[in-house]
């Protein structure tokens, strides 16, 4: 009996070690490939007019309109519209929606990754934050992802974001598609933020830059209605991208709700 248990434990440990090794090798390969993604961005990465007066980050939530030049946004949208396979997640009474993970974007959406890793975007985030911020690591599946709200009832309930890094952590959203069933307005999926007793509705029309510190801002996205579609580019930045062991474990557990069991080996 003890021999059987010992052999089973060794096989289980070896399997875990192999899975972890495989993921590490994958991320090394993807990291080496991302050195060339900048070629997918030509001309001005960001719209300079949208940055003439940067808003105060005192409330830890700001937005800028038309952050990308029209040609850059059109190319980004075309690339994202080719992503048809999403990982659906459903947490009863909290979240329902589809997601495309960072590692998938590295292979299928290089323009998205190039924007996320561009110095211009990091500079904009840092200027608003008042501190140097950089993209979070490649093994964090939520570092750069596409969020799909395209089935009736897709939403996410009231929550604070978890910070899995030693520095401050902010989220940047750029709406790619947001339309109602008739195509003449925005969907019913609205970003809302609670400040004390007040609830602010942050409209998310395409090409708006929304930045917030989710660890400090209670927020949600209301349910989308039938026939509507809302697609968001979500990117995270941190002032210190190192994590403690405990933070790394918590991130992996959280990511299993969005990306399945493979997140445990990231």
Automatic annotation (TrEMBL):
Membrane-spanning intervals of the chain: none
Fe2OG dioxygenase domain segment(s): 140-243
Family: Belongs to the iron/ascorbate-dependent oxidoreductase family.
Domain of life: Bacteria
InterPro entries: BesD/HalB-like, Oxoglu/Fe-dep_dioxygenase_dom
PROSITE patterns from the UniProt entry: FE2OG_OXY (PS51471)
One Pfam family this sequence matches: HalD
Protein name as catalogued: 2OG-Fe(II) oxygenase superfamily protein
Keywords attached to this entry: Iron, Metal-binding, Oxidoreductase
């Amino acid at each position: 009996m003890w021999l059987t248990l010992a052999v089973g434990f060794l096989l289980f440990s070896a399997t875990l070690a192999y899975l972890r090794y495989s993921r590490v090798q994958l991320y090394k390969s993807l990291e080496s490939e991302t050195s060339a993604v900048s070629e997918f961005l030509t001309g001005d990465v960001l719209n300079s007019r949208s940055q003439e007066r940067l808003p105060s980050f005192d409330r830890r939530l700001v937005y800028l309109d038309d952050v990308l030049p029209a040609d850059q946004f059109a190319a980004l949208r075309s690339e994202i519209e080719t992503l048809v396979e999403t990982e659906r997640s459903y947490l009863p009474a909290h979240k329902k929606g589809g997601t495309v993970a960072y590692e998938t974007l590295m292979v299928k959406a290089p323009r998205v990754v190039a924007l996320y890793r561009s110095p211009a975007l990091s500079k904009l985030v840092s200027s608003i934050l008042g501190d140097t911020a950089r993209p979070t690591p490649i093994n964090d599946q939520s570092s750069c992802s596409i969020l799909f709200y395209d089935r009736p009832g897709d939403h996410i309930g009231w929550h604070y974001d978890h910070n899995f890094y030693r520095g401050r952590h902010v989220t940047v959203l750029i709406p790619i598609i947001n339309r109602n069933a008739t195509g003449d307005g925005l969907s019913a999926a609205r970003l809302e933020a609670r400040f004390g007793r007040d609830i602010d509705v942050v409209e998310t029309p395409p090409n708006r830059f929304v930045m917030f510190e989710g660890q400090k801002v209670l927020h949600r996205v209301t349910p989308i209605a039938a026939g509507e579609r809302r697609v968001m580019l979500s990117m995270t930045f941190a002032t210190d991208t190192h994590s403690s062991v405990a933070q790394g474990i918590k991130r992996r557990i959280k990511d299993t709700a969005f990306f399945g069991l493979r997140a445990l080996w990231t």
